[in-house]
Amino acid sequence: MTARLNGAQPYALGLFRIVIGLLFSCHGAVALFGVLGGVDGKGGTAATGAWPNWYAAVIELVGGILVLLGLGTRAAAFISSGAMAYAYFKVHQPEGLWPIENSGEGAAMYCWAMFLLIFTGSGAFGVDRLLARRTSAQGQRSTEQTPVAA
């Protein structure tokens, strides 16, 4: 059973990355474009350039899309995790010690989910993996075609 689960690990990780990226990018789209009810429930958006809301929304949208696609996953997850850590400690934590008290569950969960992706990478179904395969295949072809000098 363990061997079967270990064999499925890249696929489970890839699905995890896709779901986290989709949900994270939705948060950015809500704040930037007012979709899905907007920030105020009436289609409102974050004011352009407003610190930290607008910048957080840009990180959420762009970082979420990159994580969703599995493109530059580790770098996007690093920046996204840091943004959520900032959101938790500067916005939520002053309201109470525990995430359940200060409504910071989302920021904490996204922070740790993105932190996990920093170390695991994109898993299956990611553009990162496709590019790595293509690069390694090209490297193997070039070494095969290189004549040996005597």
Query: How widely separated are the two ends?
Result: 53 Å
Structural class estimated from helices and strands: mainly alpha
Low-confidence stretches: none
Counting DSSP E segments of at least 2 residues, the number of strands comes to: 0
Beta-strand portion reads under 5%
Q: What is the rounded Rg?
A: 20 Å
Question: Approximately how much helix is present in the residues?
Answer: over 70%
Instruction: Give the helix tally.
Output: 6
Secondary-structure element series: HHHHHH
- Biggest sheet features: none
Query: What best-fitting shape do the alpha-carbon axes yield?
Result: globular
- What is the mean pLDDT? 90
Based on the model shown, name its key terms.
mainly alpha; globular; 150 residues
Structure description:
The chain is an all-alpha fold and 150 residues long. The chain has helices at 2-33, 53-69, 73-92, 99-102, 105-120, 127-145.
Summarize the structure.
This protein has 150 residues and is mainly α. Helices cover 72% and strands 0% of the residues.
Record the SSE blueprint:
Layout lengths: L1 H32 L19 H17 L3 H20 L6 H4 L2 H16 L6 H19 L5
